[in-house]
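Inputs:
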Amino acid sequence: MNALLVTTFGGLAMLVGLVMLAGETGTPRLQEIIAAAPSGTAVTIGVLLVLVGAISKSALVPFHFWLPGAMAAPTPVSAYLHAAAMVKAGIFLVALLAPAFADVPGWRPTLVVLGITTMILGGLRALRQYDVKLLLAYGTVSQLGFLVAMVGAGTRSAAFAGLALVCAHGLFKSALFLVVGIVDRSVGTRDLRELSGLRQARPVLFVVTLIAAGSMAGLPPFLGFTAKESGLAAFVDLGHDLDWNGWGVLALAGIVVGSILTVAYSARFVWGIFAVKPGTAICEPKEFSPAFQSVPVVLAAATVVTGLAGGWLTPRLMAYAAQFAPGSHEPVLTLWHGFTLALGLSIVIVVAGLALFAWRRPVAAAQHAVVDRVRMPDAERAYNAVMRGVDRLSIEVTGLTQRGSLPVYLGVILLVLILVPGTALVRAWDGVSVRGADSRIQLAVAALMAIAAILTVRSRRRLRAVLLVGVTGYGTALLFVAHGAPDLALTQILVETFLLVTFVLVMRRLPPFFSDRPFNVARWVRVAIGVATGVVVSGFALVAADARTARPVSDGFAKPAVEYGGGYNIVNVTLVDIRAWDTLGELSVLVVAATGVASLIFLITDRSGRPRRPVHAIDAAGDEPAGRWLRSGRAIADARRSIVFEIVTRLIFHTVIVFSVYLMLVGHNAPGGGFAGGLVAGLALMIRYLAGGRAELDEAAPIDAGVVLGIGLATAALSGLLPTLLGGGVLQSAIVDIHLPVLGTLHLVTSVFFDIGVYLVVVGLSLDVLRSLGGGIDSQIGADAAEDGRTRAEGAPA
Amino acid sequence: MTPNLPLVILVGVMVAAGVTLVLERSLTRILIGFVLIGNGVSVLYLVVSGPAGTAPIVGLSDEPMSDPLPQAMVLTAIVITLGVTSFGLALAYRAWQLTGHDDVQDDVEDDLIRRRAEQDETSMTFDAADATLPDEEGADTP
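Outputs:
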């Protein structure tokens, strides 16, 4: 988790930096950015942000703590991810950018200082570890610091040495991790206090470890030695190549100290695993196949070969290093340079390192004396503090904003509506001229509706509120008629009727009164918000209507409606052709809503409204149809039947269904259409349900509502796609005139299929609502009654 | 274009009544308020859509037609209201089935978070990092 958060943080910083660089150079391609090598303040900031990414990825101070923490994985995974691929990504990035940006202010100081600090800190911590894997992990942190300091120094010899060290590190570190893995598997512990005497038991592994650790410590003749020699030589010349003078010497001293620590912990590693320790039982490792240790053997061999093949490697590494200006010496990988300062330093490093190892107890104790007594800035503690802070902040913000109360949420939204657009409204207000009602009827209807709305708020009885809201609905329909919108009026009346019955179907189960709420301040707040919202909305209506000067876009609808849409009813053509995408979206909403209704009542994924044949079979077995007006006439108790209702239903049902289809087909040229037709069919089904109960509904529509919804949506979608096959656009209409003998000409527009889809979806919705809120609740009432009866029967004898 | 004042007032009253109901806790009242707001907005469309006219059917009359585009939008809205209200009714019924009333309660989880905020605690999923160091050489020396 630490690893993810830290490296992601670095990655985000890097992303910002790269975006800045891309903005500065005008290209997102890294090659071109490097070739352009821009400069300037923005570039400096961008490059430093990229470096944050590289540093966090490569576990440099102050991000070093994530690497040892991430060592929980199996050893081969650690070897690959945390010793090679992931952490080297940062080194790679630095190496890639160094030729172009090493001269950017802050680049060299940042990387060299952080690199050397990390090298020393990692080495010190590695010296204290008992767990050999953690020892290696801190060793890796130390080595990464070394590599970054080399690669980031930005001179030709340092870049050369950096590349050589990357190769050497890859070879010896993966070998060492695999050795740890083998030891862990075969002995069962990684604690060096429990490991003892493995040199005798595992001689091959010992030699491999000796070679790899020797390369890490920088002993000849391994690649680690030649690489480190060239690195020391590069830093010896740092003062000269970069005019660093004293600072160059300090950097060199840092590298030397870090290398001494490296020798010491390399020795500690070999000793820790293989030495015979007094007072510790000799380990007896499990046997394993020779292939198990073949990979570290190959890696160790490569370490030796590459160490001897310096002459072969040199030109290959120079291919990269040649991008830098030549320094005071040309770097070369070789075992023997002559008696140089670098050689002298190497000898000092090895001797001092071994001495440090020999006095490991006092050294460790001294380290702890410092760490325990002196409070130093601790990156990990800071990280934890930041994480805690973020968590606390989120809790405070969530606690403050997420009140979990629906009225509060809605109230906040409405208050924003009142305050922000309301303020804009007041500022935009400059006198509005209004006119009176168009007719007396309009005025009367409006007054009635307003009274009904206010009474709805005041009513405490559910049914009363529902009926009053119905008044406003029918009133709206009347206003539509007065306005010249017959389609709207028709649909509004049908919807209002359907909704009214649906409300009643649910209300029969709910308590007759709303839950008692004391008449208190909260109520006045609600009323105040409501009134303010109403005033603001009225204001919008006045200003918007008054501000309207342009001719409506729909002025141009009439001609295309006839010519392309093939219909005279512009509203319907708008729905199925001009704005058909909207309608398609709406159908999807209806399908979702219908499915939601059914699943809330039946609580299962498939609708249980399938025709229940067994019930019907029992009926059929009973007395025969004499005087039966509806097919499932005997399914409900006689006391609840109404013969008149049944007869009327019987007489009008089929007529109404035919009428609904007619409405749908004629809708293109006259008021009607898929919505109105579907609603009429839905009302017809509702009448069947009300007259004969849920069995009757199943008789009337022996089909699953989901199937109807699905077919409807599919029909609408396919009729939209069909024109594309004929070379038109999606949802484009085509007009076909079919001459039928006797009946005359059928003027067929392909969008009628879209309307059929609409019709089916609305019928499906009606069916779902009736089956769920009607039939579903019926059966639950029945079940409850049966339950009551049982408990009463059981209770009676006692 | 001059707006029709009685209808503007009607819009205000219906929206005010609807909003007052929507801010209640009873789901039925919320739904009734929703329907009221829906009807109010339908009338709002009438007000801003221009003057009344004949039905927007080509060839019906030579008189000016009412604007068909807002009508198509309102038609969509009416049917959507039907679907959403049905769904809300099913929700109300289910709430009644589960709790015996249809009041929308405050979220319990949010309440817990608020309590944590008041007591300056961290979240439940926050695991304080293990601050203890692994056993190290030299740690046992005085």
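Remarks. Residues 5-54+67-118 of chain B form a domain with the Helix Hairpins fold (CATH 1.10.287.3510). The CA atoms of residues 11 and 83 of chain B lie 23 Å apart.
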